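User: Please predict the structure of the protein below. I'd like the answer in structure-token form so I can feed it into my own downstream comparison script.

Assistant: Understood. Taking the following sequence of 315 residues as input:
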Amino acid sequence: MKPRKPFTPLRRWSLAHRKGMRTFDAWPATVRGMVWMVLGGVMFSLLNTIARELTLHLDVYQSQFLRYLFGLLVILPWIYRDGWRAYMPVNMVGQFWRGGVHTLGLILWFTALPKIPLADMTAIGFTGPIFIMIGAAWFLGEPMRKDRWIAAIIGFAGVLVVVLPKMSGEGGWYNLVMLASSPVFAASFLITKALTRYEKPGVIVLWQALTVTVLSLPMALPHWQTPTPMQWLGFAATGLLGTLAHYCLTRAFAMADISATQSLRFLDLVWASLLGWLVFGDVPSQSTWLGAFVILWATVWIAHRESRRKITVSD
């Protein structure tokens, strides 16, 4: 009789992890896609907090380049382990189209990032899900069910409850620049959804990092400043967070209709409010709590509706 292996904390964690993954895999595909979307939103909120601080001290286009350069470096160990052939895309042209469109959105977003107040930026950024839902119906042929529109509209109303009392009107034309980035990012995410039909999530994330890094380099060089050690550490953190966030979004798009996940984008306001409180000491106002409650209600409602719907999307 073979001796039993000792039940170490590492083995206990491994067993719990496998059990948790089996439970997660048993959930409907749309609900799992929603979970991936929420995880991506948390990481993007952390990323945006660090990126805004960096752009206050360094050129915005240099910040854009270094953020994606470090994102590319994060992926290199996986390429070394699996071999470069595992990351060759099926549709090379589609990868460059996606990278070019996303780079354009980043140029607009980074240009406006240090110039407008955080509340204004948040309000403008939440127009993105509306553009995505319209594009999903027009270009991807996704069914635009009534409950998805209701959840998106209620979530957007919750955002307005939080943001409108704080709108300062500062920033001038930079508000329009930030607004212009929303439909461009929506187009990028729609291309991502189309690519997930035949590309692996890791391939999409790698080629986005590669194309954006290459396309951003010419804009970064003219006003280059050597970052401080803490700024280098900040860019390394943005690279890691950005790579993980885009991987989560890609997994979400592969599992569920892109329109089904958009109401969860409004949860980002909750994470941003918590980060502002923890990092900068900004105490959430009554309007923030009320808006957060509305957003959470819409999120739980649509998740419940989607979990009861018959799933036809393949994993």
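That's the full token string. The two ends are 41 Å apart (CA to CA).
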